[in-house]
């Protein structure tokens, strides 16, 4: 699904030199490499404040802590997302309120948010799933009308652009009150271990986020509130600084691979290729098809791929609202019909910046063969 080794080989000299510079400096925690990466990422995103942290899950948790949300407050979120989005809501004693997604973009449906708002609602969490931006303009309009915070989960969409109706554009994660991302190795901008970052345009929020990341302290041994220990180490920051310089190139390579897939599957009955929304760019963290005959057909294709040792994954087979961990939220099968349909249909093919034309053709041929064999 991901080829981090070949990607490393292309930039090996730069990465090795950056890592050795940190090793020789002895500044392993919060050293110059971290400060340099913070500034480079802030410049890239065109956002004034970036606070690195240990991973993407921490980024989300710290964001909610910084907003001062209290146990019992409600947070609107899609159920069609990786569990971390919802997990941190529950860990803080907040209540996840699940809203359905659009079947074409897989992202939060802005038209369904307002009906889920109550007097306890405090925030909305758009997830830019698979690398496609959620439709942020109408989401922000609802948030402003109801005085709600917006926390963007940008773990899968670093580098994607969102275009507003007036022609202006902003990077995914820089539109709401707070943006969060992950540098897990498989991400479009991936470290060689764990890592994450939080970004905002609000100076007061930035200071609070930084304090929470550092045990609730901005002066050593003086702790104004309960915080956490969440930081990006200097070696990972050095690696990310190098890779950030290639991020647009990596995303362009992913788009070319997606276009190759799209052409191969354009006329295949029962196969729906990913939509490119008119309001933003897609950076294809995943290339996710819909096999519209349903779960049985999708699972048979996945089994065929497994048998022939061709990578393919289902992201995600069980939506959050039907996970055992969230039974107390009171949701049942049938509550989010689009989400539940998608979990029965989606299949992700290998997607990364190093895919060759031959590799793409090999994967495409196996899918076409699978569909022919399974459904003559």
Distance between the termini: 28 Å
- Overall pLDDT level: 96
**H/E series:** HHHEHEHEEHEEEEEHHHEEHHEH
What are the segments in which pLDDT stays under 50 over at least 5 consecutive residues?
A: none
Sheet having the most strands: 7 strands, mixed
Number of strands: 12
Strand content: 5-15%
Structural class: alpha/beta
Rounded Rg: 21 Å
Compute the number of helices: 12
**What spatial form do the alpha-carbon principal axes imply?**
globular
Largest sheet, spatial ordering of strands:
1-9-8-5-4-2-3
**Share of helix among residues?**
25-40%
Description:
The protein is an alpha/beta fold and 376 residues long. It contains 12 helices and 12 strands. The chain has helices at residues 4-10, 12-25, 32-45, 56-66, 84-91, 136-146, 203-213, 234-244, 247-265, 295-307, 337-345, 357-374, and strands at residues 49-53, 74-78, 95-99, 121-124, 149-153, 161-163, 169-171, 178-182, 196-200, 271-272, 287-291, 346-349. A 7-stranded mixed sheet has the order 1-9-8-5-4-2-3, with helices on both faces. A 3-stranded antiparallel sheet has the order 10-11-12. Strands 6-7 form a two-stranded antiparallel ribbon. A hairpin with a 5-residue loop joins strand 6 (161-163) and strand 7 (169-171). The radius of gyration is 21 Å and the shape is globular. The model has no long low-confidence stretch (mean pLDDT 96).
């Amino acid at each position: 699904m991901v080829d981090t080794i070949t990607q490393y080989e292309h930039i090996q000299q730069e990465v090795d030199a950056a890592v050795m510079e940190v090793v020789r400096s002895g500044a392993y925690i919060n050293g110059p490499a971290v400060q340099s990466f913070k500034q480079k990422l802030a410049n890239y995103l065109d956002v004034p404040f970036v606070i690195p942290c240990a991973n993407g899950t921490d980024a989300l948790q710290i964001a909610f802590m910084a907003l001062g949300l209290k146990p019992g407050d409600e947070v609107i979120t899609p159920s069609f997302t990786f569990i971390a989005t919802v997990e941190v809501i529950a860990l803080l004693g907040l209540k996840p309120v699940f809203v359905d997604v659009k079947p074409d973009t897989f992202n939060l449906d802005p038209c369904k948010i307002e009906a889920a708002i109550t007097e306890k609602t405090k925030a909305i969490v758009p997830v830019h799933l698979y690398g496609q931006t959620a439709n942020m303009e109408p989401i922000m309009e609802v948030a402003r009308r109801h005085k709600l915070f917006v926390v963007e989960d940008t773990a899968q969409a670093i580098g994607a652009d969102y275009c507003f109706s007036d022609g202006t554009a902003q990077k995914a994660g820089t539109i709401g009150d707070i943006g969060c991302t992950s540098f897990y190795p498989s991400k479009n901008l991936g470290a060689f271990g764990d890592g994450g970052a939080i970004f905002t345009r609000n100076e007061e929020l930035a200071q609070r986020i930084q304090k929470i990341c550092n045990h609730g302290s901005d002066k050593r041994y003086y702790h104004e509130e309960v915080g956490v220990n969440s930081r990006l180490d200097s070696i990972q920051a050095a690696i990310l600084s190098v890779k950030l310089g290639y991020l647009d190139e990596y995303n362009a390579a992913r788009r070319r691979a997606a276009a190759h897939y799209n052409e191969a599957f354009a006329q295949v009955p029962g196969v729906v290729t990913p939509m490119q929304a008119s309001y933003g760019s897609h950076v294809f963290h995943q290339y996710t098809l819909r096999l519209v005959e349903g779960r049985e057909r999708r699972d048979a294709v996945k089994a065929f791929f497994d048998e022939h040792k061709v990578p393919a994954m289902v992201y995600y087979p069980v939506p959050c609202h039907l996970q055992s961990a969230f039974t107390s939220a009171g949701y049942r099968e049938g509550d989010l019909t689009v989400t539940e349909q998608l979990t029965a249909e989606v299949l992700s093919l290998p997607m990364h910046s190093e895919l060759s034309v031959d590799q793409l053709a090999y994967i495409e041929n196996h899918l076409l063969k699978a569909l022919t064999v399974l459904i003559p």
